[in-house]
Amino acid sequence: MVYLITYVxxxxxxxxxxxxxxxxxxxxxxxxxxxxxPDSAPEALCRLRSALGGPHFLSLLQAFLTGxxxxxxxxxxxxxxCIAKALKFxxxxxxxxxxxxxxxxxxxxxxNLLVLGxxxxxxxxxxxxxxxPDLKDMMPCSSTSTSLPSxxxxxxxxxxxxxxxxxxxxxxxxxxxxxxxxxxxxxxxSTSPKYPTLIVKIDKAVDNSALGPNxxxxxxxxxxxEWINIAEVVSRVKRSRRYFSKGPFLGEFGSAxxxxxxxxxxxxxxxxxxxxxxxxxxxxxxx
Length: 287
Hints:
There is one protein chain. The chain is of the alpha/beta class and 287 residues long. It is 36% helix and 15% strand. The strands form two sheets. The chain has a six-stranded mixed β-sheet with strand order 4-5-3-6-8-7. The chain has a two-stranded antiparallel sheet with strand order 1-2. The chain is globular. It has a domain at 11-204: Rossmann fold (3-Layer(aba) Sandwich), CATH 3.40.50. One of its GO terms (cellular component) is cytosol.
């Protein structure tokens, strides 16, 4: 008697920078996964918002665009990578430090976008809260106390599970993406009372069905470029100390913090925008 044993080997997947990583055999035999993956990052954002719902999508943007860690866990990894690529589209390159298909959980100081298989153990999110560690000392005193909500998450996790397994996760299960369901894990973290301006504009654009794929792409690119420029202006003014200390805006008794607030307002920003701006100025600092 002859036994035939067939092995399905992991396949190599390449990210946009040419770096390779493996996806699991389960992904290799999932024949219909490509049919549910959008062709562009903006279209993937639309699918992601539809699956997560508005409040969770805003919380995800709040976490990722202000420097907190986003963990994508589950299978198929092609779908996780599609979500990761969509998030990358929204931030400057220096604010994106991904690790794909890691065999262990990495802390937020190592990666701000972590893609894990379903077998990888992750810590509980019940105690997750507070500022991204590297940003706390960079932000003005007034910003750390007033502009950033105390509920800002340090980790936001999305689990991707087969649709038929979603009964086990209860109320945490959100919408469907093809034959898979997304589960948001935020522990006891509440949503922000007021989001940064850019995050609100992105959410409105992604939710606007009147914008076609090309128009949405151009609009999101213009929004990102606008806030890259705003962050650059703030950075340049902050580096040029002659604009501060004696208060050229406010007079002799003006403070640097007050002048930064006036500068941001003149650029179209508001107080909740500071966490995003400081993260976009300094980028991800890997420890």
